[in-house]
Amino acid sequence: MVFSLATFSPLKRYSIMKYLFLCFFFGLKICSAQTFSYPKFTKQGSEIAALIPQNWKIIDTAYGDLNNDASDDLAFVVEYHLPITENRAYGDNDTELIKEFQKPRVLVVYFKNKQAGNYVFALQNNNFILRDKEGGNMGDPFKKIKIEHQNLKLSFEGGNNWRWKLNYEFKYRDKEWSLVRANNIYYNSGSGEMTEKKYNFVDRKVHLVIGNIFNRNAGNNQTEEILYFRDVRTFNTFKKPWTWEITKDNFL
């Protein structure tokens, strides 16, 4: 028996075609979600354009010396061209996983090989960079990637009336990327009420500022305390912002 749309009324044919189209469309989305995998970045290349996988785009780039060889290395963040369903952690590295439909982001670092004149792969991290929907009413929380004083710096910002700023500095040493400094500011956009914590994981100290963000240093209460933690966090042990509970109910 041969199936033909001609045997149906125009209204019925329209309904069937609409149904088939929706099945095809959602079938493609399901297939896309099932087949997505993070790319494996090329081991080396002479130009940044040759390092970017198909269907990914750069959203920020930084140049500077990261491995103390007096040459400008390359760090960048790329974003996938389509949203997918991801499991993202909140609270710590293991619990409270939440499914979100968003575009994945990847942090990538290449060291510059002065002799060969090209870039050599050094780091790929699929988790640490916040996605564009993770900043609350302020929109995309990812602000900047920067290389300064041989440190890789990442900046984020988000919230609603109560807002937050997070800054992290990672250093490459002993073939590992260690968190050496961090800065966490929590403030009210209207009143300016603020708590700021500046972490130094090398000296194991935390500098606490409580007051008003509009006053900055004037009139704000500042104290310094010893910072207690067991192990320095790295990109391998620090899944993403807000997942390290340094002390009770104090997340970074």
| Main beta sheet strand tally, sense and closure | 7 strands, antiparallel
Q: What's the tally of helices?
A: 1
Going by helix content, strand content and strand pairing, the class is mainly beta
Gyration radius, rounded: 23 Å
Mean pLDDT: 87
Shape designation:
globular
The largest sheet has its strands arranged as 8-9-10-11-12-13-14
User: Which range does the strand content fall in?
Assistant: over 45%
Amino-to-carboxy terminus distance: 66 Å
* Structural domain tally: 2
Helix share, percent: 10-25%
- DSSP strand tally: 16
Query: Residue ranges: pLDDT <50 for 5 or more in a row?
Result: none
Tell me the series of helices and strands, N- to C-terminal.
Answer: HEEEEEEEEEEEEEEEE
